[in-house]
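User: Structure please.
Assistant: Input sequence and predicted structure:
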Amino acid sequence: MKLRLATRGSKLALAQAAEVSKALENVGVKTELVIVKTKGDLIKNMTVKELGKGTFEKEVNAAVLRGEADVAVHSLKDVPTSGVPLSLAAALPRASPWDVLVSSKPLKDLPPNSKVGTSSSRRKGAILRLRNDLQLVDIRGNLDTRLDKMEKGFYDALVTSEAALHRLGVNTPYYKFSLDKMVPAAGQGAIAVFAKEREIIRILQKINDQRTLEEVSLERKVLEGIGASCLTPIGVFVHMLRDTFKMSVGFYGPKPFHLDLSFHAMERSRSINEITSKLREVISH
């Protein structure tokens, strides 16, 4: 059997699809890529906020719904927690979840008014909490384009994910944000595979990393519980140790909020309900 993998055509998206393809072929499943040009890829002069929710994943999913592909490959952090017409069938073992500052200097040593490129409301809020004397500039385009713009002086530094740098083999100086400084986006570092047909989902189970799936599913439940979107300035990170989950939540809105807690796997539903209730209260005030 051959599975058709729908993916965007950016270098990072293709690198992620290649990882899925390799994992499937390692279990005896042949693959081919179906490259989808999305609205977000074609329109370069609009922000993610202007383009709208799910800009980069809707059209990839549509290829599966139309029968042009069997599965959709996504960076999980870009996928909304509701309204997705496909099932999350598998997650590959998670790469680094951390955010990084691409710069020759750490954040604390950047001169005042330095221009830092990022379009993420979460990253912007976290950075301003640490350095409110910096200029935060929206940035679009693939990682190569962003790095090139920084080299040309459009930015003094930029924020991206460590996983993206690793997947593209980019060798550049960077500084990793610790968990207490910037909590990663839910699902960051995880490659997710979505499908519609039951038989396809069964096949994808062969490449699923259950630990990653459980961790990122809890992160996404927090977002779902507060009705968050990709524009909500919140990070959620879960790490599983045997039968215990360690969770960190960072809200980077007008009233910043950081929470670290641990709970037993048997208590996950109650714990998530308590966390989302507390977050809704903080966000609404």
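Residues 2-95+186-284 form a domain with the D-Maltodextrin-Binding Protein; domain 2 fold (CATH 3.40.190.10).
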